[in-house]
Write a structure and sequence with these properties.
The structure is a homodimer of 397-residue chains. In chain A, helix 1 packs across helix 2, helix 3 runs antiparallel to helix 4 (206-224) and helix 4 crosses helix 6 (252-267). Chain A folds into 2 domains: 10-182 and 283-396, Rossmann fold (3-Layer(aba) Sandwich), CATH 3.40.50; 186-280, Rna Polymerase Sigma Factor, Chain: A (Orthogonal Bundle), CATH 1.10.1740. Chain A has helices at residues 126-139, 153-164, 183-201, 206-224, 227-233, 252-267, 270-282, 305-310, 330-342, 360-363, 365-380; strands at residues 10-16, 21-22, 28-29, 33-39, 49-53, 78-79, 84-85, 90-94, 109-110, 115-116, 145-151, 169-175, 316-322, 346-353, 390-396. In chain A, the strands form 4 sheets. In chain A, strands 1-4-8-5-11-12-13-14-15 form a 9-stranded mixed beta sheet, sandwiched between helices. The first copy, chain A, has a two-stranded antiparallel sheet with strand order 2-3. With 397 residues, chain A is of the alpha/beta class. Chain A has 11 helices and 15 strands. The interface between A and B is large, with 50 and 50 residues.
Chain lengths: 397, 397
């Protein structure tokens, strides 16, 4: 992946949220802010902005630039001539509220107490991530987004954004997202939270909490990448000749997981992880389809995704799923495409094949770029009458 | 699942192993024994015995009987008229060496020190489980088994048994087994061991070790059952009306996992878990295909499953895989069937569909019974010339 800084201007800033910023479940954040990076130039008509919602653990630093030349997590996708073409588009990436890369979250100091929030950070929903990001868009003077785009958690957030702010984005792109987590994803994330939360709540020393974060990350990685990728890359390869009962890390795949886990522990705050992970499980797009005033948490069948989709005011939608995705199975993403299409949104569903599974959007730029480029070109073109269609394309890696 | 005790005689006993019992990696066990249960009657010709190798955490109590009327883990499969028909067969189930249900393992007292082995239990291989079980078969006066049968880990053990004791079993049945774990299975078990082992080695108090065992069990369960089963059974159902940030167990799937995990922690010894789990990862049937004196641990491509299969002296083999199995993917089991067939074993490969995934053999007796009954009938019939064939059947639940 190239890390060449895009030539277009970029900015990195923090944007203050209205204070207090009231969360969906009732908590208030005083003096909260979100970290925002932008790439490209907002045109005079202010109609070329694309808002990007990230996955659970990503920062706003999606692309490298002169102000921060360190690699961005989506360098291959953002820049001149890339899928998010900074010669044409003004790309806005917001670090999720509740995260720990400049936005207010559990690792921040609560100005009312002078203490780090930690476990006292108020319960947050995916809807709050969408609302905080929209507040940043407002602050940037953007009335209507060309498109809102989200990957993984971001694929949930982009739905929340569309439901909460009808008409504020012309296009919607969900990559490896879902209208709601399935039981296996809930179970997996619940276990990760249990590990981290148990030790955090017990006031365990930092090394134990870090161990829990390492384990949670390993579970995460095993749910992101496809089984076949692990087999192709590592198989039963061993790191060194076997010398009796070892440290437990003599298979290559174990060392690789350990490397990823150590890196994550250094970067991510445990309570941020807990808070955002929990928000993902609680998200249910169908809750936008039931009477106002409910909390969106009810037994199956009581939420209504079709009704929720009918409230959206989107010109076009693009839903991309990856067949090897274990965490957000492609069936869920196909269903999202169908629900949007049946609600009258001009929606394309594209199904990709990649051994990278849920993480494919981070690495398979060659697969994603043409699909995104075509979608964004269609949105940039002068408006014409468009028939409502849902069609599916399948691309093999 | 019916728990009616079979009417045929059953026994539960401990059988002493030759002492010292030298393990594959060089360790010695003094005064070791294995727990054995038998169902049915050994016939005068002593040719109707079936040896069952279990999964990681199962005991020898596969079926309930008057001496121990508590439910057995394979009650639906063992008894008069069942797949393992105790009116015809003499079924021998051995608690794996290294386990904690009566067989010598890490929870046993080392007679040389008077102390519980714990982490000092010598490194054990799947081969040692096979050898200890064969020692029990010898003690029961059985020269040739009608068949050796194994599920999960047992599907590895049955291959080790066939390679170590050529001609001692006429038939081989592997259910949801593998010739070697794949990278994803290694990674999953490695993480489980890391959790349990880290806290055990740190001398953490019992409650922390139990927590690690609970987490390891939850990871295990999520790797055993199919994603679709969780979705069908639990979806996003919640246990109670949501009342703010809760205990983290407000989804039904979370409560179910917690129940299973608590039960497991009460039953299984942590060091037994660690030891047998590690043995599973290290097992490589292909190591029987390379020069003697090596330890079977080498880089990929250096072991030879085809050569290993050619050393077997089995009349017939039955390999059963389940398509929804995440831990022992069905591709691995199909490969096992092919390798055995190509080595000249009369081998049938049967692929089943069940939402229970890896655990299907515990619950889907209606699917497994006709397949096993047919196979065992073929073995019981007078010997005739049999052509070597590998054929595949697919059965949908």
């Amino acid at each position: 992946m190239s890390a060449t800084p895009p030539e277009s201007p970029s900015t990195a800033r923090r944007i203050a949220l209205p204070s207090p910023f009231r969360l969906t479940m009732g908590g208030d954040l005083v003096g909260a802010e979100v970290a925002v990076e932008t790439y490209g130039t907002l045109n005079p008509a202010r109609d070329n902005a694309i808002l990007v919602f990230t996955g659970l653990s990503a920062s706003a630093h999606a692309a490298s630039h002169p102000l921060d030349p360190s690699p961005g997590w989506w360098d291959a996708m953002i820049g001149p001539g890339r899928a998010f073409d900074t010669d044409r588009h003004y790309v806005v990436v917001v670090n999720s509220l509740g995260s720990c890369f400049g936005s207010t979250g559990p690792a921040s100091v609560n100005p009312l107490t002078g203490q780090v929030y930690g476990g006292d950070f108020p319960e947050m929903r995916v809807e709050d991530i969408a609302r905080a990001s929209q507040a940043a868009v407002d602050a940037l003077g953007i009335d209507t987004l060309l498109a809102a785009v989200g990957c993984s958690l971001g694929g949930m957030t982009v739905l929340a954004h569309a439901a909460l702010f009808p008409g504020r984005a012309r296009g919607l792109v969900s990559i490896s997202g879902a209208m709601a987590a399935n039981a296996a994803a809930i179970a997996t994330r619940s276990l990760q939270r249990e590990m981290v939360g148990t030790l955090l709540k017990a006031g365990a020393d930092r090394s134990l909490v870090e161990q829990a974060m390492r384990w949670a990350r390993k579970i995460g990685v095993l749910s992101y990448v496809g089984t076949d990728l692990l087999e192709q890359r590592f198989g039963r390869d061993q790191t060194e000749p076997y010398a009796g009962r070892g440290s437990g890390t003599d298979f290559e795949v174990e060392s690789w997981l350990e490397h990823l886990a150590k890196k994550f522990v250094r970067q991510f705050d445990p309570w941020s992880y807990w808070t955002i992970s929990r928000a993902m499980d609680l998200f249910d797009f169908g809750a936008f389809g039931v009477a106002a005033g409910t909390d969106g948490l009810r037994h199956r069948g009581a939420t209504d995704t079709a009704a929720a989709a009918r409230t959206l005011q989107i010109e076009r939608a693009l839903v991309i799923g990856v067949r090897e995705d274990l965490l957000f199975p492609v069936d869920q993403q196909r269903e999202m495409g169908q629900v949007l299409g049946e609600a009258g949104v001009d929606c394309e569903y594209v199904e990709l094949c990649s051994p990278y599974g849920h993480d494919a959007f981070l690495t398979e730029s060659a697969l994603f770029t043409p699909v995104l480029t075509e979608f964004l070109s269609g949105l940039s073109a002068p408006a014409t009458h468009r028939s409502v269609t849902t069609h599916t394309r399948q691309l093999d890696a």
